[in-house]
């Protein structure tokens, strides 16, 4: 799933390639990805892209027209969605079918544009066309952005206070912090040398400062690694940059211990016992005992 660093990189890539361009056609190939219907996504046609930004894991493309209010194409790529930039796009309109193509945007002054695709049978890709991004429920409920200068150590301590959940679950909750998902929560906790099952409210002042630094450093490093990459290169870069997530059975790059995994119904976390849990492996089941 694309998380904050990948969406930030996509935003930068599209800013370079889209801003100033006129949208010629919008083809909603898979109607189920559309989460709003008024205005229709075709209302973007003829408008000029003026900005591309990110809200958590959401990509926001802003398009303007003379004497009309801005419209925003809001995209959430979910687990298996992706944006594919096309330098040469066919003149033939795409037809609905069983393939991965969900939506196509073609630019007016060239044959370029982008496709939104989604693999697999479990569909979560979401596209909205709105007058205000805050109209999208997922954006309206977002917590603070961890890369926003306003997100301070005191702000994190305020979020931790009274939080009865485990750190892993808290970091992934978009209403608590915007943009962190399964992969980077594993990376952050490894960098902080903390158990994913440690209760958030039990962190000491020193531990909360360590976690704060791990959040910022991990995300900024990932954004820096992705800087300047084309959209098609971001997935591969994310995999190569991860230290523990997705690397169960491999040696920890810090201490050499074997990276372990805890599996759940629809996801899994990875961690290093030596670095994070005092050398104790966690039980691989949903009701694993919390480590203090």
UniProtKB/TrEMBL annotation:
What's the protein here called?
A: Formamidopyrimidine-DNA glycosylase
Species in which this protein is naturally found: Kitasatospora kifunensis
TM segment ranges: none
UniProt family annotation: Belongs to the FPG family.
Q: Which UniProt keywords apply?
A: DNA damage, DNA repair, DNA-binding, Glycosidase, Hydrolase, Lyase, Metal-binding, Multifunctional enzyme, Zinc, Zinc-finger
Q: Which PROSITE patterns match?
A: FPG_CAT, ZF_FPG_2
Name all Formamidopyrimidine-DNA glycosylase catalytic domain ranges: 2-120
Q: Where is the signal peptide?
A: none
């Amino acid at each position: 799933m694309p998380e904050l660093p990948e969406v930030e990189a996509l935003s930068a890539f599209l800013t370079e390639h889209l801003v100033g361009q006129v949208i010629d056609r919008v083809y909603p190939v898979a109607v189920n990805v559309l989460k709003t219907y008024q205005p229709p996504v075709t209302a973007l046609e003829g408008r000029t892209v003026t900005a591309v930004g990110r809200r958590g894991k959401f990509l926001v493309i802003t398009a303007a027209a003379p004497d009309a209010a801005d419209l925003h194409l809001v995209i959430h790529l979910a687990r298996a969605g992706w944006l594919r930039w096309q330098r040469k796009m066919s003149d033939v309109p795409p037809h609905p079918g069983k393939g991965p193509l969900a939506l196509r945007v073609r630019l007016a002054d060239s044959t370029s544009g982008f496709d939104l695709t989604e693999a697999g049978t479990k569909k979560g890709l979401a596209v909205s066309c709105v007058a205000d991004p805050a109209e999208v429920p997922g954006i309206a409920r977002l917590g603070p952005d961890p890369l926003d200068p306003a997100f301070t150590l005191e702000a994190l301590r305020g979020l931790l206070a009274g939080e009865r959940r485990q750190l892993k679950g808290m970091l992934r909750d978009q209403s608590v912090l915007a943009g962190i998902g399964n992969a980077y929560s594993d990376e952050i906790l490894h960098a902080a040398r903390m158990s994913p099952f440690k209760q958030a409210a039990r962190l000491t002042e020193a531990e909360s400062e360590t976690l704060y630094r791990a959040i910022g450093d991990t995300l900024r490093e990932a954004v820096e690694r992705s800087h300047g990459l084309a959209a098609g290169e971001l997935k591969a870069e994310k995999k190569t940059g991860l230290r523990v997530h997705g690397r169960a059975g491999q040696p920890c790059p810090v201490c050499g211990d074997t990276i372990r995994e805890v599996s759940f119904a629809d996801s899994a976390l990875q961690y290093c016992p030596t670095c994070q849990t005092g050398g104790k492996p966690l039980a691989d089941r949903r009701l694993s005992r919390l480590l203090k």
